[in-house]
Structure formats: C-alpha cells, structure tokens
Amino acid sequence: MDRFGWVPSVGGNISVRLDAERIAITRSGGRKGFLTREGVMVVDLHGASLTEGGRPSAETGLHCQIYRAFPDVGAVLHGHSIAATVLSRVVEGDGIVLSGYEMIKAFAGQTTHEARVVVPLLDNDQDIDRLSGIVAGRLNGPVPGYVLRGHGVYAWGRDADQALMHLEALEFLLDCEFQARKIN
Ligand SMILES: [Zn+2]
To answer: By the 8 A CB rule, do 23 and 17 touch?
Structure first.
C-alpha cells in the first residue's frame, strides 16, 4: 500500500482477524510504510483494546463492523489514495458506477467486463458510530469495499492477500475513472 502511495503520512490503517473474537490493528498515528511490531495492537470485535497502552486507529469501529458482518473476512485494508480522494469529491450521489472494465472480474461473482457494478460512496463523518450505521446498509453489494468521500477506500477479503488483491482492483478501477475524467 505504501509503495503505491495509498498510505501517505499517517493515513490509512490495516487489520487482520486473529480468531472469532479478536483482531490485530494498526495503532493511531504511525506511518504504515514503516510499520513495526509495536505499531500493531489487539482489540475485540467491538474495538475495545486488549493491549496495554496506546490507542487503536481512530477508525477501528469501521474495521470491527466488517468483521462482525462477515465471519469469513480475515483482513481489512484502508488507504487514502489520490484517485479515491479526488474522484469521490467529483462524483455525485451515493455510488461510483463501474462498467466495461475487465478488472471488474477481480470481484467474486463477476464473470464479464460487461457487468455494471456500483461501489458504495458515503459522505465522510468524524463520528465513526454514526458512519458505521450508514455503512451497515451498504455492505452487501458485489464489491468487497466502499469509498468515503474526500477520504479513502475500505476493502476486505478472506485473508490479507485477498484483501490486498481486492484493494488493488478497486484502486485500479477508481484510478481509471479518475484518469478518464482528466482526459474529458
Ligand atoms: Zn482514513
């Protein structure tokens, strides 16, 4: 994520499921491209810290929500890419429509580039509990991810590899839409 420029400064956060009750998540602050063992802590599925000292990511509640909703999800990634940040401020409404892209097939159940998928787009909110409530109704679409306006992308998968694969596909598609608008 750092190599692609998706976690600039202290942006973004990363988590993996440890078991049915616990996740490991990056602490608040720290630069993810320079992540160390000390930069990770353990919380329960409601965001309560199980590690002495330090604060989990401010957006831990959004990670926990995904793990609670999908017992088979093993990793959640969140980055602040330029494409997602800029595009989400230009697109109106509550979804970014993608069609005609071969890369759509990276998402489970999509067998053709002719498919039309909508990436949920939600207004950013510093109140994570309130935001979680709005996200809740948008989690079950074909895309294992969503975009927060002017903020960034959430993506998930059964493990860290698949979550990264989904994030790469989503970021690729968002960047295509971003570049296409620049040409136009
Ligand atoms: Zn963020």
So the answer is: yes
